[in-house]
């Protein structure tokens, strides 16, 4: 039965159901319970995002708080994954990858290949990305392209509460290291989510909206921005097809190419900065594989090539919005040779 | 190697210096208490971490510093900024996201900086500052300026590899660096009695071959004295020192933190340990400063903070023309 719950609750439910199902699943991170060694309430926070709230008492000994030592605890999660556990580590902000990146990209990502296919590292690193909360330059970045770049990592960017639950359960059951990117402005977004456990397979894009005039590929929170633009465009008779890749690695190239072959036009919406991001990656794919179908140059709607600004006046300009997406669609629809 | 300093004498500070110290501490307190109130109105964007309760640390250390010297701060950085001489009105405007702010509204509370004052910035990354201070100290040493670098960091950052690597490097290179571990009891919601495996952060100094000192962070004079010795040693080529300053954070990790993990220690500290109360009691009892002069400072500071908030609210925000500037010097 589906009920309406938040993105935060959907994630918490996914964790709880997997911890219930599989004893090897553990959760660790800074204040994932909260209040360790403190005189007041334990389980005070449930992570700074509140996602893991309640798990500490429900699963004794399986929710571990950590010192602020990302290299150590992310590395420990990776090591534990090689040794029979299925850890879900919380890297509070994706920006903090800078502190612990070696463990992720030189260790976890490469074990399988370097060790000749003998290693299995079923670790999930949940992390919060994205702009919009005035959290400034070191707490707002959309860094999933960096992880997508690394062979050996799988990268998930869920776009709704439904996607969040199914993809997190899939991530936990997956035997490879997974970077699970949650948008910080989405935790209170609500949607219909089945109560029962379910999975959404990696590498299978979702077609969020059907349309014949243009293909919009949007990543994570940008899916809802694209939907808003599509509604606006429909009023002027332009029907957009919206594709949510769900996972940037593996990437469902087939669904994207099929759609562009039908519409002949592509707009990619990516909150990341514009160099070497998902927009350039998907555009290159389409330019190479579906060149003959394209009826207009590809448009990319991204953040500018700057750090994320603090002031609301600048941050609102920084983040791609529905108007910019609609404008990009108009550009490709109206384009004439 | 760890010594606990008893409350030190204040013989080095004359009345005017004491008044300056008091003004700095009062400014920090008033700035933070006002932000606490203003944040509740919803007008302040983003994440704000307040330094109230910890004023004696920034003030007691920075009183020894001048423009040759650099400091690195933390996400809880307003106090360090004020103590190092960053303009209070520009700070307030920055926190309000205005173009007139210290960083033209691009940085915000967690990134206030003023390089002209040797203030390398508050920092959004726990443990981000200590390695940078090795660099400023190296530059001072190479250029022979006599300058020092001071890394302020919290008990949380004391568990970051960057901090530990920086302390080792500073000792290996015998840098004029001072590591000030501000142990306010909590890394976010986690108690430092749990997260720091040693009894004291300062105990770790032995492992890095530098002196380690523990001071009562509510006692301005104790901090001032410990910092005097460490900074003098650094300036004279004697290498780095780790000073652990112990106190209690008056507000939550961030504004909005419900703090259910705490149990009454703030009320106790505010009543019995507070650095401003103790400072006032001491300097008036010894007759070094008249109470009326301290009262006058209180009034001046209150006016300054009022004006800072008023001007910040009235100041313009940055515009589209500012969005893509300042990424590079030339591109």
Automatic annotation (TrEMBL), chain A:
Xref: Gene3D superfamilies: 3.40.50.920, 3.40.50.970
Keyword check for Oxidoreductase: yes
Keyword Oxidoreductase assigned: yes
CDD domains found in the cross-reference section: TPP_PYR_E1-PDHc-beta_like (cd07036)
All residue ranges annotated as the Transketolase-like pyrimidine-binding domain in the record: 5-189
UniProt keyword terms in alphabetical order: Oxidoreductase
InterPro entries, A to Z: THDP-binding (IPR029061), Transketo_C/PFOR_II (IPR009014), Transketolase-like_Pyr-bd (IPR005475), Transketolase_C (IPR033248)
Name of this protein: Alpha-ketoacid dehydrogenase subunit beta
Protein species of origin: Prauserella endophytica
UniProtKB/TrEMBL annotation, chain B:
Protein name: Thiamine pyrophosphate-dependent dehydrogenase E1 component subunit alpha
Cofactor section: thiamine diphosphate
Organism domain of life: Bacteria
Alphabetical list of SUPFAM superfamilies matching this protein: Thiamin diphosphate-binding fold (THDP-binding) (SSF52518)
Keywords of this entry: Oxidoreductase, Thiamine pyrophosphate
Membrane found in the keyword field: no
Cited Pfam families: E1_dh
Residue intervals of the Dehydrogenase E1 component domain: 24-320
């Amino acid at each position: 039965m589906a009920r309406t719950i938040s993105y935060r609750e959907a994630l918490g439910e996914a964790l709880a159901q997997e911890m219930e199902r599989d004893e090897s699943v553990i959760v660790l991170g800074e204040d994932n319970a909260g209040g360790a060694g403190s005189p007041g309430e334990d389980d005070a926070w449930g992570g700074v995002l509140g996602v893991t709230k309640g798990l500490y008492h429900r699963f004794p000994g399986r929710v571990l708080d950590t010192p602020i030592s990302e290299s150590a605890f992310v590395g420990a999660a990776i090591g534990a994954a090689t040794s029979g556990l299925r850890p879900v580590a919380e890297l509070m902000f994706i920006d903090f990858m800078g502190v612990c990146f070696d463990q992720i990209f030189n260790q976890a990502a490469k074990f399988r290949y370097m060790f000749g296919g003998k290693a299995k590292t079923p670790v999930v690193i949940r992390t919060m990305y994205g702009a919009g909360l005035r959290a400034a330059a070191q707490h707002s970045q959309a860094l999933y392209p960096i992880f997508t770049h690394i062979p050996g990592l799988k990268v998930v960017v869920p776009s709704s509460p439904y996607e969040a639950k199914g993809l997190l359960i899939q991530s936990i059951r997956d035997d490879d290291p997974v970077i699970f990117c949650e948008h910080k402005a989405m935790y209170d977004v609500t949607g219909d989510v089945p109560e029962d456990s379910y999975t959404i397979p990696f590498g299978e894009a979702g077609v969020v909206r059907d349309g014949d005039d243009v293909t919009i590929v949007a990543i994570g929170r940008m899916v809802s921005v694209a939907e808003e633009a599509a509604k606006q465009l429909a009023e002027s008779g332009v029907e957009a097809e919206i594709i949510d890749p769900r996972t940037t690695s593996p990437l469902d190239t087939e669904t994207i190419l099929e759609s562009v072959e039908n519409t002949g036009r592509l707009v990619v919406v990516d909150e990341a900065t514009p160099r070497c991001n998902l927009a350039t990656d998907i555009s290159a794919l389409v330019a190479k594989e579906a060149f003959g179908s394209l009826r207009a140059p590809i448009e990319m709607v991204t953040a500018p090539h700057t750090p994320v600004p603090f002031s609301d006046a600048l941050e609102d300009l920084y983040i791609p919005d529905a108007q910019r997406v609609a404008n990009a669609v108009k550009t490709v629809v109206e384009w004439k040779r | 190697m760890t010594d606990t300093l008893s409350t030190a004498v204040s013989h080095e500070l004359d009345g005017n210096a004491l008044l300056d110290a008091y003004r700095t501490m009062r400014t920090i307190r008033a700035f933070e208490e006002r932000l606490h109130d203003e944040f509740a109105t919803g007008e302040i964007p983003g994440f704000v971490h307040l330094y109230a309760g910890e004023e004696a640390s920034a003030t007691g250390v920075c009183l020894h510093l001048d423009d040759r010297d650099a400091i690195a701060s933390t996400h809880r950085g307003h106090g360090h900024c004020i103590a190092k001489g960053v303009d209070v009105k520009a700070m307030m405007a920055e926190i309000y996201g205005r173009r007139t702010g210290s960083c033209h509204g691009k940085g915000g509370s967690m990134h206030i900086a003023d390089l002209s004052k040797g203030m390398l910035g508050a920092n959004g990354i726990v443990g981000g500052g200590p390695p940078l201070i090795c660099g400023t100290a190296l530059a001072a040493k190479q250029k022979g300026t006599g300058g020092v670098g001071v890394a302020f960091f919290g008990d949380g950052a004391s568990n970051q590899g960057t901090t530990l690597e920086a302390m080792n490097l500073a000792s290996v290179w015998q840098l004029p660096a001072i590591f000030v571990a501000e142990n306010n009891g909590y890394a976010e919601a986690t108690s430092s009695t749990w997260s720091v495996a040693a009894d004291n952060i300062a105990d770790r100094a032995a492992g890095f071959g530098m002196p380690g000192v523990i001071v009562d962070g509510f006692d301005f004079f104790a901090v001032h004295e410990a910092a005097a010795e460490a900074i003098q040693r650094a300036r004279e080529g004697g290498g780095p020192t780790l000073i652990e300053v112990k106190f209690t954070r008056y507000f939550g990790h961030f504004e909005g933190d419900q703090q259910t993990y705490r149990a009454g220690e703030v009320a106790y500290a505010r009543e019995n340990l507070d650095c401003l109360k103790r400072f006032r009691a001491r300097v008036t009892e010894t007759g070094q400063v008249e109470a009326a002069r301290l009262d006058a400072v209180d009034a001046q500071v209150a006016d300054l903070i009022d004006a800072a908030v008023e001007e910040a609210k009235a100041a313009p925000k940055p515009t589209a023309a500012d969005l893509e500037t300042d990424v590079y010097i030339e591109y």
